[in-house]
């Protein structure tokens, strides 16, 4: 059996940020309607160094499995934080169809989900991204591609300046970034970014960094006073920022709206100009499937190598 193997560069050539947003939008709607299915991701901890994650999904006649890692200390040793593979199979006969670089797929769908939530739940104005790593860069790139004015902040100021110049964004202080109309946080989740009372009326925040046990980007008390949305209740309530509010018995399932329900028209998004909206993202396998299928649609154009199994 011969299958195409798409490198990170292949995936980026095949799927633009704009295509990624539309693909992820359709995946959210299909999942909300029960047309696509996905069990919660499985964590295989290797703490304190990092963890492995297995993420399956089924939809549009295809099945996917992403085997991906998160080792935050890797960059200090010249290694990427995220590595892994995305495998796509034909759901009618189980035959493997392709393998894709997981880091590129993850970055594209993370940026797409962050911006999609901001455009769905936020107001017009200035966008800011906190964190200029691989996924933060993807979010900023997606904002720029969608026509937003973008600020970028990172604890490493030189990295923020380099990435901002590359993307056509502006480097900003932490205070400037956190004061933007819509904010995307893509931090390691080791410390709170939004303390109680820190969000102003009308702001929107997409929390992308706290995607595993022990991570948090927002205080529980702040979640209690804003309008909360999530990518998937089962995942977010166990491994996202929301898990801390659930453990504290501050929020329950009825207090949180899935983004897919808003996109599918079965739930209300922003209800008032001054409402504060917060999106808790843990990263979904259906998003990975959407990006993988979008890449495979352009397979003839990118001339990816093939391997015999």
Structural class: alpha/beta
Task: Tell me about the largest β-sheet.
Answer: 8 strands, parallel
What is the annotated CATH architecture of the largest domain?
3-Layer(aba) Sandwich
Sketch the topology as an H/E string, one letter per element: EHHEEEEEHEHEHEHEEHEHHEHEHHE
Could you estimate the helical fraction of the residues in percent?
Answer: 25-40%
Question: If helices are DSSP runs of H or I spanning 4 or more residues, what is the number of helices?
Answer: 12
User: β content, as a range?
Assistant: 15-25%
The count of domains is 2
Distance between the termini: 5 Å
CATH topology of the largest domain: Rossmann fold
Mean pLDDT: 96
- For this structure, the quaternary state is single chain
Summarize the structure.
The protein has 309 residues and is α/β, with parallel strands linked by helices. 36% of the residues lie in helices and 25% in strands.
Description:
This protein has two domains: 2-105 and 286-308, ornithine cyclodeaminase, domain 1 (2-Layer Sandwich); 113-283, NAD(P)-binding Rossmann-like Domain (Rossmann fold, 3-Layer(aba) Sandwich). It is of the alpha/beta class. The chain has helices at residues 8-14, 17-32, 102-121, 134-145, 157-167, 174-178, 220-225, 233-239, 242-247, 259-263, 285-297, 299-302, and strands at 2-6, 42-46, 50-59, 62-70, 84-90, 96-101, 126-130, 149-153, 170-171, 182-185, 204-207, 227-230, 256-258, 277-280, 306-308. Strands 9-8-7-10-11-14-12-13 form an eight-stranded parallel β-sheet. The longest helix has 20 residues, at 102-121. α3 crosses α4. It has twelve helices and 15 strands. The protein starts with a strand and ends with a strand.
